[in-house]
Amino acid sequence: METNPPAPSPRASGPPAGASGTPASAGSSNSVSRAPLPSPTGASPAQPGAPFGVNEIRLNAWQWLAVLLLAGLVAVLTPGLWARVERFPTGPDYRLPYSLSKDYWLYGRRLRQAATPDKVLLLGDSVVWGEYVAPDGTLSHFLNQQAGAAGQFINAGLNGLFPLAQEGLLRYYGGALRHRKLILQCNVLWMTSPKADLSATKEEQFNHSRLVPQFWPRIPCYKADANERLSAVVEREVPFIGWVGHLQSAYFGQKSILSWTLEDDGGSPPSYPNAWKDPLSQITLTVPCAPEPDPDRGPASPRHKPWSGAARFDWVELDASLQWAAFQRLLELLEHRDNRVLVLLGPFNEHMIVQENRPAFRKTRDGIAAWLADHRIPHVVPETLPSELYADASHPLTGGYQLLAQRLYQDAAFRAWLEGR
Fold this sequence. Notes:
- This protein is mainly alpha-helical.
- It has a single domain (69-418), classed as Rossmann fold (3-Layer(aba) Sandwich), CATH 3.40.50.
- It is 35% helix and 5% strand.
- The protein contains 13 helices and 5 strands.
- It has helices at 61-85, 104-114, 126-129, 139-147, 163-173, 194-197, 226-237, 239-251, 257-261, 322-336, 358-374, 398-410, 412-418; strands at 120-123, 153-155, 181-186, 340-345, 379-380.
- The longest helix is centred in the first third of the chain and has 25 residues, at 61-85.
- The radius of gyration is 36 Å and the shape is globular.
């Protein structure tokens, strides 16, 4: 008699526990599928294969392009709009304040403001700017006095400038100088030694290093690294960066906002007066003016006094001078922009040079004058001023500027150039 096998238990109909490769839970006789627990935040758990992401907004390629275009538009438009909003008070004897000597963006704005067909701009270093004198004691002031027209001659000098830096300043920030009358001062002080000429091989620190040629022509004493050189080149080419530099110079003491915030008062222990200030409150939308009166300049200043002590100079030959080569390139640039340029050679203090060193000075001065004559560039070589009217090797005192202006107006070449003959 056959006996039917017992029916399989329902538990035996599925695969044994752990057969799928996943062990059964401890303390349980079988594997039971459970729904995933909800997230405490109420969000659905990540699904296998879902892309990882934590940002609420993701930009696609077109959106990134729109952001870049918007940022570029802001960078392009901001400097021009700022110049319309920011107040820039100037007067007949205005000169860029000493504290803003490295605000090249503002210097370019000043040229755009002043370079009109009826004006004559005086370009040069601290001799034109007026290192020892007040604004009403400069060459431009006394030329206006001679002309009988306030504001005809504009002081466009910059303190601490020299030909290698002036070339960069006018090339990159002087685009407004086109079809204008310009008096360009040539100061032979920059050829009195290899150090002054910047042709010495020993490393030297000097003013306006961001304006000089960064790669070519090579300046032997300029040892900046590649990062500094490249940043100087970018700053010249991108007006937005120059505008940022203007904000730092005009409102934050030539410091970045971070450096300004962390500046201490020099005390012991130091305190940090700017740490809790609102940086935006510093921006007054008015370009700062020079102190009035200036304690370092003018007849009441202790610096406004005649020179003392003779000197010997190690003159650099013209054909080897970096500064003279830069001055020649600068003349070429200004003439290429259709400006009418007159070169003022001097006024150098010949009294200060020891007797045996004077022939070398005259050779340099006469060599420059001969080159200007050969290239038919109008120029004036003024007579050396009386000794007591100089403050040092190249800067006149107030009376020296007054006498120089009188002599210029009496010079036939100057009058012919001024009248367009």
